[in-house]
Specification:
Layout (H helix, E strand, L loop, with lengths): L1 H13 L16 H15 L1 H4 L10 H17 L8 H5 L3 H14 L14 H18 L42 H9 L14 H27 L6 H29 L5 H18 L5 H15 L11 H70 L3 H88 L6 H58 L3 H46 L2 H27 L1
Helix pairs in contact: 1-6, 2-4, 2-6, 10-11, 11-12, 15-16
């Protein structure tokens, strides 16, 4: 069993189970380790079943029972036929765990059991190299700078220690959700220096990249959170949502600036003209960014800008604080009135424009309809005019028309005859060419299918070759990483010794079975011989017993001897069966000792107490 346990532990380590080094047998597996090993195997065998299972036992007892039941159901789903329940994982016994792990290891897919949770190739080699280098550096103790010796220079160099200093970078990429124009792409391709050349100190490259990546990741996370929480509810596209957010931010800034300007004007530090200039500058910069719109929109914006930009007359003398506030209130009320008047005018104009656009569309539809009616009437008039021109000479024109019809009919017949002469060879040629095309199409389709099958075979062979090459590289790297002092011959010799021991055990088993068969045959022969001898003796003595009294007593003694011998044989057989039962009971006792029954009972009692405590706590919460 030791060899079997070593093979199982090796397979479990390959599928990602962290088995401690001191555990070299299934007997030493704890419940947590059993659960982790089973879940790791299930995730490799069937990812859909294993992904929903926890890799460790939870602290609560009820949750542990549920995890044990789910693991038992998952193992039965993948094909395990033995008896299985939550007690197998919580109160594990060595034979049950060994049989379960052997089943799961045999169910592991071939070719992927060794690399179940990772892909093969250069990435695996790179990860292993990084892990080896980090493991080597972590194994070396850290020393202060003043205590380092020259032999410590490969791993602990003072020059690698720098302050975390960051600088702004301009990477060659576009912001999220935007696209670069042609000039920006040309600038990034031809004039933008690399990231390593944008910094004054080369030591700050890593810290600057980390800082920029952190900022971009944080911004992306904030945007995703805002879009999922608020943007989706707005029923807008991301671009429209960003535009609306910019407009709201611009309006908020304008309000903040207006309130700040009003508070400052109340304190007498600024005048109302500064506020007007500042707001007008902000509006002008805002309107300059919007380049699209209709002619009516541009006209309204231009009018509003002209009225807003009109300078206010500055007083010649510095007014008092009260007069300033009154002037500001009057100016504010007048501006509000102007704004309301312009808003009402704009609404009236928009309604008039909509009404006129609807009226214009109706008029255009009427014009188009009347033009179509006029065209039909013109055609009718032309036909009637031609008919009226022909009426004065109706007989002559009728004869002319009949002559034209007859000549046209004759001409049609002659053309039909000529067409039939040319049509027959053309039809034959067409049929012949169609047959040739059909044959060529069949040949080309067959060749095309062969070419496609060859292409598929080539792609399959190429993929297999790549996989085999990657597997070969991985195996070569693993072979190089393995200790070189262990020879293959030692493992081969060990395997041969195990095989020879198994053969010897089989030979001994066969020898015991043959001896048992020989003994059974000998017992059967002796029993038959004894029965025959007793029958013959009984017959002879029974004949003489009728004549002689002493022979009759001998016959009675013979019958008693035969009965005692049968009882003795039966007693020997019962003794053998009892000894076999004793051996079976001793084996069961040993297996029960191996199942850790006493320890499991103690754990069951502890779990029972824990469950009672949890139930009491839940009952207290419910009562409260």
């Amino acid at each position: 069993m030791e060899e079997v346990d070593k093979i199982l532990i090796h397979a479990l380590k390959q599928v990602g189970t962290e088995v401690p080094e001191e555990v070299d047998s299934v007997r030493l597996f704890s419940s947590e380790l059993v659960v982790e090993a089973v879940v790791s195997c299930l995730r490799v065998i069937d990812p859909g079943v294993g992904q929903g299972l926890p890799a460790s036992l939870p602290p609560g007892m009820s949750a542990r029972f549920r995890v044990g039941m789910s693991l038992a159901q998952a193992c039965q789903d993948v094909g395990y036929k033995g008896e299985l329940g939550y007690q197998t994982f919580l109160y594990s016994s060595e034979p049950e765990i060994r049989s379960l792990l052997m089943f799961l290891v045999e169910k592991l897919p071939r070719g992927s059991a060794e690399s179940s949770d990772q892909s093969t190739g250069k990435s695996v080699l790179l990860h292993k190299g990084i892990a080896g280098a980090m493991r080597a550096e972590l194994s070396v103790p850290w020393l202060p700078v003043t205590c380092r010796l020259p032999r410590d220079s490969p791993t602990q160099v003072p020059d690698v220690l720098h302050h975390f200093h960051t600088q702004d970078l301009s990477p060659a990429q576009s912001p999220a959700g935007t696209s670069l124009c042609k000039e920006e792409r040309e600038y990034q391709r031809e004039h933008l220096p690399p990231v390593t050349c944008q910094l004054s100190h080369h030591a700050s490259v890593l810290s600057s990249l980390l800082e920029r990546h952190t900022a971009e990741s944080s911004a992306a996370h904030d945007w995703n959170h805002e879009w999922n929480s608020q943007g989706l509810l707005s029923r807008l596209t991301p671009q429209e949502y960003r535009q609306r957010k910019r407009c709201r931010l611009r309006l908020r800034l304008e309000e903040q600036l207006r309130s700040a300007a009003q508070t400052s004007s109340d304190s007498g530090s600024h005048s109302s003209s500064d506020l007007s200039d500042l707001l007008q500058t902000f509006r002008s910069s805002n309107t300059q960014t919007l380049t699209k719109g209709s002619h009516f929109t541009h006209t309204q914006k231009f009018t509003f800008t002209q009225e807003a930009v009109a300078p206010c007359p500055l007083p010649q003398t510095l007014p008092s604080e009260g007069n300033t506030q009154l002037q500001q209130q009057e100016e504010l009320s007048s501006l509000q009135q102007q704004l309301q008047q312009m808003t009402s005018d704009l609404e009236q104009l928009s309604t008039d424009l909509k009404h006129k656009s609807v009226t214009t569309a109706q008029v255009l539809n009427d014009i188009n309809k009347r033009e179509r009616e006029n065209e039909t009437k013109r055609d009718q008039i032309q036909v009637k005019k031609k008919t009226m021109d022909l009426l004065p000479q109706a007989e002559e024109n009728l004869h002319k028309i009949q002559a034209l019809v007859e000549t046209s009919a004759k001409r049609v017949l002659s053309l039909a005859a000529q067409w039939e002469k040319h049509r027959a060879p053309l039809i034959e040629e067409n049929r012949r060419l169609k047959e040739i095309c059909r044959v060529q199409d069949m040949e080309s389709s067959g060749k095309l299918s062969e070419i496609r099958s060859l292409h598929d075979k080539i792609t399959v062979c190429t993929e297999e070759a790549k996989k085999k090459e990657e597997t070969y590289k991985q195996l070569v790297s693993e072979l190089e990483s393995l200790p070189q002092d262990v020879s293959r011959s030692a493992y081969t010799q060990r395997i041969l010794e195990i095989v020879s021991n198994i053969k010897k055990q089989k030979e001994e088993i066969f020898k015991i079975l043959s001896d048992t068969k020989e003994l059974q045959k000998e017992i059967n022969n002796l029993t038959g011989k004894l029965d025959r001898t007793f029958a013959v003796t009984d017959e002879l003595i029974f004949k003489d017993a009728k004549k002689d009294e002493s022979v009759r007593k001998s016959y009675k003694h013979l019958a008693a001897l035969h009965e005692n011998c049968n009882q003795l044989i039966q007693t020997i057989e019962d003794t053998g069966s009892i000894l076999r039962e004793i051996r079976d009971l001793e084996e069961q006792i040993e297996s029960e000792h191996g199942n850790k029954t006493v320890a499991n009972l103690e754990r069951i009692l502890e779990d029972y107490k824990a469950i009672r405590q949890e139930n009491a706590a839940l009952a207290a919460k419910v009562s409260v």
